[in-house]
Every structure is written in C-alpha cells, then in structure tokens.
Amino acid sequence: MRLVATKSVKPGSKLAQPVYNDKGSILVQKDMELTKKMINRLKALRYTYVYIRDDRLQDVELEFSTSSEERLKAMQVIHKSFQEIKQSDNGKYLTEKMTEKITTSIQEMVSNLRPKRQTLTILSDMLIFDDYIFSHSVNVALYAMAIANEMKLPVSVVEEIGFGAILHDVGKMFVPQEVLQKTGKLNNEEFEKIKEHTTKGFHYLRKMNNIPLVIAHCAYQHHERMNGSGYPRGIQGSDIHLYGKIIGIADVFDAVTSNRVYRDAMLPHEGLEILFAGAGELFDMEMVEAFKRSVAIYPTGLTVRLSDGRAGIVIRQNEDINTRPIVRILEEADGTEPDPYEVNLYEHLNITVVACSTAAESN
Predict the structure, then answer these.
(1) How far apart are CA 53 and CA 56, in angstroms?
(2) Quick one: 336 and 247 in the same domain?
(3) Residue 275 contacts residue 269 (beta carbons within 8 Å)
(4) Domain assignment of residue 62, yes or no
(5) How many helices (H) and strands (E) are present in the chain, helices listed first?
(6) In what helix (H) or strand (E) does residue 55 lie, and over which residues does it extend?
(7) What is the pLDDT of residues 179-230, one digit of tens each?
(8) What is the pTM of this model?
C-alpha cells in the first residue's frame, strides 16, 4: 500500500482504503479497481491522496490517531452547526443542543490523543467533503489539540482549544461565497472581505451566553502573528491569547497541506518548513516544536528517497522521533530492485530523507 496523489493515479490501480462522502457512504470501495472516470471524479472532488495497493507492501497497516468515524461525526456536527447559523436569521444564535454536540465530539477526539504518539496524519483519513470549511475546522481542531496535548496543558484547556478551533472560521459564514471560492488571485477589496471573517466571527460568538468569551477570541485572533503583522488588530507577542497562537499554527498547517481550488496541497514536511520559516517571528517557536513532535511528518505509505541514494516506502512511525520512520527499501542506489528489506532511520542516524514523492509508479 502506497500513498499516491490523486492526480497521478493510473487506471487499473486498486484502492487500499475506501473513500467516503460526507454522509458516511462509501464512494469507492476498498480493493476497487479504479477507472479513468472514477479518478476524474475524485479529482473533481478535490480529493488529494489515495492509498493504492502494492504487492510488496501487503503487510503494511495504517494506524489512525482518530478514527474515520470520529472525524466524520465531528464534521457532520460542524456542518449542522454552520447550517443552523445560516438559517437563524443571519446567525443570531447557536442552540444549546448543538454546542453540547460539539463538546461531545471534542471530548471524544481528546480521549484518543495519545501522549508521545506521532501518528496524527489527516492525509490518511479517506473522507471527501463538499465544503472545505467543515473539514478544515475539524483538522485544525485536531492539530491544535495535539499541540496543546504535547505542551502538557490540562485536559480542560485542550478541550476548550478544540472547541475554539472548531468555530475559528465561523465568520466565513458571513463572507460572500463567490469571494471564498474564487480560484484566481484576490483583489484588495476581496481580501478585505476575507479578513472580515475574524471580526464577524468574534462579534457573533461573543453574544452567545452558552459559549465562553475565550472561544470568541479564537475566531478573533487566529490570524494575528507574533511580530504584529497579522490581522485584524495587528497585536503581537504576549498580547495574543495562548489559544489564538496555537490555533493560528494549526490553521496555517492545514491550509497549506489541503487541496484548494487555487493550488495543490503540500506534504506534511513541506508544511512544517513553512511554520519553521516563520517560527519566532510569526509563530511561537515552542508551539511549532510541540507540533513537530505531534504530527506524522513522513506519513505511512509515502515514497521517500534517502541520502545514500536508496528509495522506498514509509511503513511505520517511530514513536520516539517522528522525523525518522521505518522505510521498506524497494530500490537500491544503483537503480536495481532488491528483495524488499527494512531500514529503521532511528537506528541509522547518518541516513536522512532527502526527497518525497506521491507519484504513481511507471508501468
């Protein structure tokens, strides 16, 4: 089983994991042989990656930090919540019942965040959603809670951060869809409308008696940056709430590692490079380091090239250090194909990953 970019999947490939829609129904069954029509459908739905069967990797199993069912349930809750907002006279309230459902979903996800377990891999959840905002909100919640969990914050704080992350983009419900879905570059006026989602979300949430005021500040501050270059207020450093700093990091990472209408997704290690490039200036360094320890930088199934010239597939994560996975070698440095064998990069510190690929193999 290997991780392959949907845009490079070839007809005749067989799925190693099923693909679901937002109703929990299977769109493409596990072991199904993909046709050109199916592949085009997945591309049209902006699904970024699929797991494809490979006879040399039949024993490789995926480990999920959260189950597909959990994430599906959470996304359905946020979908219904945002629908409720839209239908309640331009968003006057979010019912007590719906806030309880969000709280329950968050608590379920928190209970499955395992200390010192680097398997947070959103890439491997085979779900397709018709609106980026819903899946993004749940992904950001998972990432933000992983950071908080790694920082050893109290469970109650982790849950509150997750709640704030779920609702951090609620203000986008009040931004014109044509602006949100625009494929080309935004003009200045359109970008100003996008930026308004922080203040609109804040003013909406702060009026709700059944939600703590700090949740409103999650919506307000997740685009603020340590050096004051963010928005809407341009505050900096200690003036930015802890939750806003954490959610801001999670928000950027998920944004760059997700397929969007205007660009392709980055791989996790590329997304982390973006965060580290801004660490200390845009993002809190301690929080970026905590996130690095929490996410699967090289997801299981990813094709990697090693510094000694060999190539293979990541087959497992090392719990102690997620930058050095176990790789099954499928190609020697001279281009020959050996009988597959494993190299644990944790045990060979002189060997590093120098390149990654999600391209399909040549026929």
Answers:
(1) 9
(2) no
(3) no
(4) no
(5) 11, 9
(6) none
(7) 887 777 889 999 999 999 999 999 989 988 888 999 999 999 999 999 999 9
(8) 0.84
